[in-house]
């Protein structure tokens, strides 16, 4: 199963809660790019996890493992399962690769067990695992509020292609939240206007309303983020933005051919970036 990553068309952080979580407002959408995850039931109560990335933890430190535990705890039975993950989405990119894997495990186990969990129950499991997991369980495009668990579905935006580029250096989400200055808001970011643009299918309104509050803290730590944004827009992107807390940057193209040309131009300009994809 392809567990599709997400990008943030806008993200704002409103406050820090006593429990360490943060209240947010963000618009997320899935992209046709992600890890390949397969799950199969065992019957002996064991959970095994294997993966293609040697750096990926294979026990409870992996959110996909904890997702399986949480499903079994919720249904009151523990048949166990084997989880195999072929990593494509890099860690520390701000694209919810791990959260998408966890959501995929939740949804696949529910299907294989005969559908004992409602969408609301699966969203609740996701919320307990991480702020991005509920959206990944639901998919599509959505306005996310609260700590990420209050989801308002939005229609798919106009057809777009994305060139995604990740610097070699990654960003820790925990570090980004700890160092973020909430008062530094991106110029022009308007999440309500962005949602209106998506509902209306108005690409120009979408592009002019985007923004990412984390850029103020992540760009000083990884200057390539700003360089990649500028390069993508110079190569014809309608808008370029960092996703999540970084460090991946995406450029949006309304024309697939223009995106393909930009991909070639980016490869030529930055032959040694950490990762480059056209989706």
Average predicted confidence as pLDDT: 96
- What's the gyration radius in Å? 19 Å
CATH fold naming of the largest domain? Ribosomal Protein S5, domain 2
List the helices and strands in order.
Answer: EEEHEHHHEEEHHHEHHEEHE
- Estimate the global geometry from the Cα principal axes: globular
By DSSP, the count of extended strands is 11
List the domain count as a whole number. Answer: 2
Question: Explain this structure to me?
Answer:
- Helices cover 37% and strands 28% of the residues.
- By secondary structure, it is an alpha+beta fold.
- It has two domains: 2-154, Ribosomal Protein S5, domain 2, CATH 3.30.230; 161-278, Alpha-Beta Plaits (2-Layer Sandwich).
- Strands 1, 2, 3, 4, 5, 6 and 8 form a seven-stranded mixed β-sheet that branches. A four-stranded antiparallel β-sheet has the order 9-10-7-11, with helices on one face.
- Strand 5 and strand 6 (150-154) form a beta hairpin.
- Helix 1 (63-75) packs across helix 3 (119-129) and helix 6 runs antiparallel to helix 7 (203-209).
- The longest helix has 16 residues, at 97-112.
- It starts with a strand and ends with a strand.
- The model has no long low-confidence stretch (mean pLDDT 96).
What distinguishing features does this structure have?
10 helices; 7-stranded mixed beta sheet; Alpha-Beta Plaits; alpha+beta; 28% strand; Ribosomal Protein S5, domain 2; 2 domains; 4-stranded antiparallel beta sheet; 279 residues
Blueprint of the fold:
Blueprint: E1 2-16, E2 22-41, E3 47-51, H1 63-75, E4 81-86, H2 97-112, H3 119-129, H4 133-138, E5 141-145, E6 150-154, E7 161-166, H5 173-179, H6 191-200, H7 203-209, E8 211-212, H8 215-221, H9 224-234, E9 239-242, E10 249-253, H10 256-269, E11 275-278
Helix pairs in contact: 1-2, 1-3, 2-3, 6-7
């Amino acid at each position: 199963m392809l567990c599709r990553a997400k990008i943030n068309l806008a993200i704002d952080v409103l406050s820090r809660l006593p429990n360490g979580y943060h209240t947010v407002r963000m618009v997320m959408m899935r992209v046709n790019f992600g890890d390949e995850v397969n799950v199969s039931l065992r019957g002996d109560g064991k959970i095994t996890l294997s993966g293609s990335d040697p750096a990926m933890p294979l026990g409870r430190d992996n959110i996909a493992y904890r997702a399986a535990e949480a499903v079994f705890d919720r249904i009151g039975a523990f048949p166990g399962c084997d989880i195999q993950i072929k990593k494509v989405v890099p860690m520390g990119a701000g694209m919810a690769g791990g959260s998408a894997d966890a959501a995929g495990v939740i949804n696949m186990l529910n299907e294989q067990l005969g559908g004992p969990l409602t969408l609301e129950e699966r969203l609740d499991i996701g919320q307990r695992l991480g702020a991005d997991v509920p959206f990944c369980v639901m998919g599509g495009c959505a306005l996310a509020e609260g700590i990420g668990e209050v989801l308002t579905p939005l229609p798919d935006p106009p057809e777009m292609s994305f060139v995604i580029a990740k610097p070699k250096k990654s960003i820790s989400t925990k570090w980004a939240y700890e160092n973020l200055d909430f008062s530094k808001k991106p110029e022009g970011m308007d999440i309500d206007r962005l949602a209106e643009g998506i509902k209306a299918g108005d690409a120009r309104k979408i592009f002019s309303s985007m923004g990412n509050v984390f850029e103020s803290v992540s760009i000083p730590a990884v200057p390539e983020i700003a360089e990649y944004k500028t390069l993508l827009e110079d190569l014809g992107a309608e808008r370029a933005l960092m996703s999540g807390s970084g460090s991946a940057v995406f450029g949006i193209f309304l024309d697939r051919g223009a995106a393909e040309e930009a991909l070639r131009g980016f490869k030529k300009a930055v032959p040694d970036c950490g990762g480059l994809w056209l989706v």
